[in-house]
Amino acid sequence: MFLWDMTNPERDGALENDIIVHENMHGVTNLMTGGGTGRCLQTTEACGMREGWSDTMADWTEQTSSPIVDYVLGQYVTNNAAGIRSHPYSTSTATNPLNYSSLQTLSEVHAIGEVWANTLHNVLTALVSVHGFSSTARTDPSGTAGNVVFLHLFIDALPLQPCNPTFLTARDAIIQADANRFAGANRCILWTAFASRGLGVNATNHVNDATVPSDC
């Protein structure tokens, strides 16, 4: 694992669980996106989302109860409470202001990933707020707790989205995954969470929209 040189002596990322989870998820998302071709995350936006998915699963594994709390990646390797990202992942726009329109000025893949991961943090928070939290989800992904539902939607959506997905097509894949597995029971929860970060019904070309479907 990568040796981080922000401390003396350097710190090995293999000793920080969320770093390991982040790297492991690259294999999952690379292989599953677009139906398993293994070459479907090549554009800048898709590569950024790859980083975001990895941060998101690290976030998911570090949550221990309801409510979902703000999450910071990489505190050990940096020996810094701020971690390795620009903001904590949070539902608070004061704590993390990133939204879909932020992509207008971002081109580095990890920075793009922060926008996607923070959006998904909001989705996870919304599902747990409605459905509760399972403390055994990491070893028993059954039941209907919010973090369990999120895990299923996260994984189910990967092969549904096209090669080189965008934020919009990945959003749509998650909503479709909910229709497939849960008969759309979480549709309005998902739309509301996505819209809170600019990915509403009418979002397009990296321009925010907060609209949800009329029946929500």
UniProtKB/TrEMBL annotation:
Q: Write out the GO MF terms.
A: metalloendopeptidase activity; zinc ion binding
What residues bind Zn(2+), as annotated? H22, H26, E51
Q: Which residues cross the membrane?
A: none
InterPro entries tied to this protein: Fungal_virulence_M36, Peptidase_M36, Peptidase_M4/M1_CTD_sf
- Record GO cellular component, one term: extracellular space
Q: Mind telling me which Pfam families this protein's record contains?
A: Peptidase_M36
Query: Which EC class does it fall in?
Result: hydrolase
Subcellular location per the Swiss-Prot or TrEMBL entry = Secreted
Gene Ontology biological process terms in this record: proteolysis
Q: Which Gene3D superfamilies match?
A: 3.10.170.10, Neutral Protease Domain 2 (1.10.390.10)
Active-site residues, record numbering mapped to chain: E23
Q: Which UniProt keywords apply?
A: Hydrolase, Metal-binding, Metalloprotease, Protease, Secreted, Zinc, Zymogen
Which cofactors does the annotated protein need, by name?
Zn(2+)
Query: Chief location of this protein?
Result: secreted
Q: What is its EC number?
A: 3.4.24.-
Is Nucleus tagged as a keyword? no
On cofactor binding, the record's note says:
Binds 1 zinc ion per subunit.
What family classification does the UniProt entry report for this protein? Belongs to the peptidase M36 family.
Name this polypeptide is given = Extracellular metalloproteinase
State the species of origin. Answer: Bondarzewia mesenterica
